Amino acid sequence: MYSYKPENPLIVQSDRSVLLEVDNPYYTEARDALARFAELEKSPEYVHTYRISSLSLWNAAAAGLTADVILADLEKYSKYPLPENIKVDIRDAVGRYGRIKLTLEDGHMLVIADDAALGEELARHRSFAPLVKSRLSPSTFEIDPAQRGHVKRVLLQIGYPAEDLAGYVSGAPLHFDLRPVTLAGQPFALRHYQADAAEVYWAQGSAAGGSGVVVLPCGAGKTIVGIAAMHKAQCATLILTPNTIAVRQWMREILDKTTLTEDQIGEYSGLKKEIRPVTICTYQVLTYHPRKGAALKDRGWGTDKDGGAAPDPHFESMAPKKRRLPRISEYPHMALFNSMDWGLIIYDEVHLLPAPVFRITAEIQARRRLGLTATLVREDGMEGDVFSLVGPKKYDVPWKDLERQGWIATAECHEIRVSLADEDRMEYAVTGHDQKYHFAAANPRKLQIVSMLMAKHKDDDVLIIGQYIPQLEQIAQRLDAPLITGDTPVRQREKLFQQFREGQIRRLVLSKVGNFSIDLPDANVLIQVSGMFGSRQEEAQRLGRVLRPKQNGLLAHFYTIVTRDTLDQEYAAKRQLFLTEQGYHYDILYEEEVPGFTPALMAMNAAPPRRANGALQPRGTASD
Fold first, then answer.
1. Membrane spanning segments where (predicted)?
2. What is the secondary structure of 400-436 as a DSSP string?
């Protein structure tokens, strides 16, 4: 029996919302507990609001959390007794995961409910019934193996996420070993959490493993987890990535840390079309559609060469659409999925997966699938498709846990609020709503703040990143710094990144191409001048650019400059939700306070810098 204490930080409400007091000695413990099974919705100064959703509970259940553990955490930190309906709802939601199982018996794909009543409910459901080949018993149905993904998607929508135990094809064999010493001459071994993530995903090669998502912070070595999964599978592997830079980084890491050779690894991008036992492809190439003459846009993608995020008529969500979406056969490069007997498909940055790739993924459920991401947040609401088609969350480590252990850098986050000039305030007031954010985000007064911050970090390795090219061009000119955008050729990007890694240049200005998959381990300051509206995933990715542990133990600094009392400030609050959930706190500075601000150098009680996969790495090498 728990004794409820008024000094506890939580108030659990009957609508599944949870209020968390920030100014409370138990705040950190309660926040870390909530993050495992609830989603942060709002984070004002004093009380944060979480939501316990069915999907968050199903992900928790798939990761091994029980209803008893979840309820015990809520009881432990709650001010008042839990509403009875919350206890029932949590037990019911967690209990629904796995009540339906997919199995393969004598070549027949079966859907098995755990009792006849549930079987009858399924049989009568208008979305499930058309997918049934035959009903073998009150609780057992046979389906077409080709419909495996579609059935799982429907079952999730019905509210009974299936546990898929139907197994996987082995794929073409590909034998290789992990190197104890990298080609760069550094000792190499998996970090403990990387090994744990690969073990949980693989599940000893059983049908209980083989599909799922590993969630780790940027800089924590998600690529290494992917390589560890490849090593366990020992089979032909298709790796899907956000862009060509990411393709090259995967190739470098695989060659550096495994015995695979160059002739076994192929690049399938806009520049090359190689199909080899390990093939690394970009999402943009896969979604190329000749009728459009360019990569189809999805939320999070675009044809602006920056991986833009404008809504697109071809965007597909779980809700039905009246407009016709292109058939998979209309995407010529989707044939890559059938070009070799793949045993493993890795989805790098799975939170960015375009809708057409979801659709082909529904049809290749017999292949093992691994999603890698820093955050399961999707701004398009398709987290359910990640769960049902790629797999549930199998492994997750809070960012602050890895920070405390020294595997990622300690970061200080600051939001700097800048006013509009008097003449711009009136123009903002009369600007149409669709243009208000752009107007506020491109506030010219931000440039002065950037200059002040650069003066305070003159000896640091600084990235300045934003959304709008004219704004970035002004900053690059003001700082005499190189600018990298989607129009910068890949060869030139790689040259500038290498110069930054080697210390030849100490500052880079980046457009959205800097959001993910750039390998700049010594960057320790990031200044964000504009972003993609209220994108939580983008905020997490951008902080991740400076989270590689620093050899000298220096703090990382993340500054986001926003225009106060505008949509820019409102969107910033939403952008920060995920990182707040992970334990990061944004200190607010106003423009008049910046001249007197002195950045801290070292974290108090910080862990010493850890050895990166076995050894402290020289400048210019890293593993992520």
1. none
2. HHHHHTTSS--EEEEEEEEPPPHHHHHHHHHS-HHHH
Biggest CA-to-CA distance, the chain: 75
Alpha helices in 352-410 (DSSP H): 355-361, 383-385, 399-404
CATH superfamily of 403-593: P-loop containing nucleotide triphosphate hydrolases (3.40.50.300)
Quick check: do 192-397 and 403-593 share a fold?
yes
How buried is 234 (Cβ within 10 angstroms: 0-12 exposed, 13-18 middle, 19+ buried)?
middle
Backbone angles phi, psi at 445, to 5 degrees: -70, -10
Instruction: Give the rounded distance of the alpha carbon of 475 from its chain centre.
Output: 29
pLDDT per position as a tens digit, 306-358: 333 333 322 233 333 444 556 666 777 888 888 899 999 999 988 888 888 88
Q: What is the pTM of this model?
A: 0.84
Q: What is the rounded radius of gyration, in angstroms, for the C-alpha atoms of the chain?
A: 24
d(CA 581, CA 31): 7
pLDDT exceeds cutoff 70 at 300 = no
Virtual torsion, Cα 575, 478, 554, 523, nearest 10 deg: 70
Using the 8-state DSSP alphabet, how is residue 71 labeled? Answer: H
What SS3 state is found at 143? strand
Give the start-to-end residue ranges of the domains of the chain.
Answer: 10-96, 100-164, 192-397, 403-593
Contact 548/409 with Cβ under 8 angstroms?
A: yes
* pLDDT tens, position by position, 491-546: 899 899 999 999 999 999 999 888 876 778 889 999 999 988 778 888 888 888 88
What would the 3-class secondary structure string for 83-98 be? CHHHHHHHHHHHHHCC
Q: In which element (H, E) is residue 103 found? A: strand 100-105
